[in-house]
Design a protein that fits this description.
Order of helices and strands: HHHHHHEEHEEEHHEH
Strand content: 15-25%
Structural class: alpha+beta
Oligomer: single chain
Distance between the termini: 26 Å
Largest sheet: 6 strands, antiparallel
Helix content: 25-40%
Radius of gyration: 25 Å
Number of helices: 10
Length: about 300
């Protein structure tokens, strides 16, 4: 299914194109993402252990049994997080960690960092099924409001790495509804990757479920064939009914008739499908990307 690593790879492809450099491969991104998550998890566990020790200070005056001498000795140990916090990057929003790795975890991390070349061979052997897919770019305002910046995909099954790269760039540069994305816009962007599954013909234009199905339509108008699609989340985000979604799809395809006459078009066909979606914004990619620049990682 779609993953955060797929979204990171889309950002990597777009940024590298704007910076005129070669992007990391998808296996490299997946391996580095796994290492990043592992470090964040280790950091989180270290923080919880420190919190258990520090919390004893808050209960010294309570009416409880004296603190065992062994715990008092523990409290005299230096803080693991304070020893290394200055060298730890900000965590991704998908994690809860806010502290740094301790000295022991840094040692184990270094060994895995420098064995990346070997481990990436395992990553390259990961199996990815081919999927139809769409890549969506949005701009995110300071208040968190998203506005579409580009969305293009295909209903033909794609090899994942090449498909993500092709449509990350195509949706960024070639969506005719928008001007091409430029480098200065990167910090305002978020990306969504949707893998399409379970295509089924609809028995009628209303034979689909809002919030579950995407819809692909085709119809004949003035002796010309038209078609368009909306991904599963579009209708719900816009607050449309099924009929409003159909009319909007027909408008998107190029139909210019009256809304009340949409049923009069010739040979209206609808196909419903579902989507496995993942999303990620620029700050997440930037935090991860800065982390990958540490010596020995790549």
């Amino acid at each position: 299914m779609a993953s955060a690593a797929y979204c990171l790879y889309c950002f990597e492809c777009l940024a590298s194109s704007l910076e005129n450099r070669e992007p990391l491969s998808l296996p490299q991104v997946e391996e580095l993402w796994d290492q990043y998550k592992q470090q964040q998890t280790t950091t989180s566990n270290s923080t919880e252990d420190d919190a258990e020790i520090v919390d004893t200070d808050d209960v010294e005056d309570a009416d409880i049994d004296p603190i065992p001498a062994s715990l008092n000795r523990l409290r005299g140990l230096p803080s693991l997080s304070s020893a290394s916090s200055s060298s730890t990057p900000s965590s991704l929003s998908a994690t809860s960690s806010q502290a740094a790795l301790g000295a022991s975890s840094k040692s184990s991390s270094r060994s895995s960092f420098f064995s990346f070349g070997k481990r990436s061979n395992n990553a390259s052997q990961r199996r990815h099924e081919d999927y139809p897919l769409f890549v969506t770019w949005d701009t995110v305002s300071s208040r968190g409001h998203k506005s579409l910046r580009g969305c293009i995909g295909t209903f033909e099954a794609q090899e994942i790495e090449s498909g993500l790269k092709n449509y990350a760039l195509t949706s960024a540069f070639d969506d005719t509804r928008f001007s091409p994305i430029v480098a200065s816009e990167l910090p305002t962007l978020s990306v969504g990757v949707t893998l399409l599954i379970d295509f089924e013909p609809c028995s009628s234009p209303s034979d689909w479920t809002l919030g579950t199905h995407g819809l692909r339509i085709s119809f004949t108008y003035h002796s010309k064939r038209y078609g368009s699609t909306y991904l599963p989340d579009v209708a719900v985000e816009q607050g449309w009914t099924k009929e409003e979604t159909i009319v909007s799809l027909m408008r998107k395809a190029g139909w210019s008739g009256r809304s009340s006459e949409w049923r009069k078009v010739g040979d209206l066909r609808c196909v419903r499908y579902q989507g496995k979606k993942a999303g990620l914004d620029y700050r997440d990619w930037k935090s991860w990307k800065d982390w990958t620049r540490k010596p020995g990682l790549i």
